[in-house]
Structure of HTH arsR-type domain-containing protein:
Amino acid sequence: MTSDPLRPLVDTLKTLAHPVRLRILALLHAGELCVCEVAEVLGLAPSTVSEHLTGLRRTGLVREWKVGRWVHVALSDEASVRPLLEALWPLMAGAEAELSRDRAQARALRCDTCDPVACPPSRSSKEHA
């Protein structure tokens, strides 16, 4: 069986070819977030966001770690993906209005501790109680 040296690049480009994953990358360009924050901004279930993050992590574009029971994500700092990410930002300029709204909403949700009181779903349920 012959190994395809282009396979990793093809897999990465396929991963990038989805609007939700591009929005996640744009959110993370502004800094790390908790998965609960990403889900809240995108209006998606945490499990859906996790599925998208799995592909981004598998291709090396993002990294994640746990803080207590909360999962945090950030753009990868690997030298191998940095040029690809840097080339991506100007290409996303056409969607800047939507991406700016996403970033503003993420800043408003910031939960530094990611404890049950501070994370968006808990905060939302307390506001409506």
